Amino acid sequence: MEALFNTFLGPPCIVQMKVKPAAADRPKKKVGFEDLLIFKGGERVSGEVTISPRSGRAVDHSGIKIEIIGQIEMLFSGGAPFEFTSLVKELDHAGALDRVKTYTFDFSGMEQPFESYDGLNVRVRYLLRVTVTRNLALNVVKEQDIWVVNMPPPPEVFAATKTEVGVNGFLHIEVHLAKEKFHLKEIIVGKIFFAKVKLRIKSMEVVLLKKEKIGSGLIDDENSKVETIQIGRYEIMDGSPARGESVPVRIFLAQHENLTPTYTNFNNQFSVEYYLSVVLIDETNRRYFREHEIQLYRREIA
Question: Which fold has domain 2-149?
Answer without folding.
Answer: Immunoglobulin-like (2.60.40)
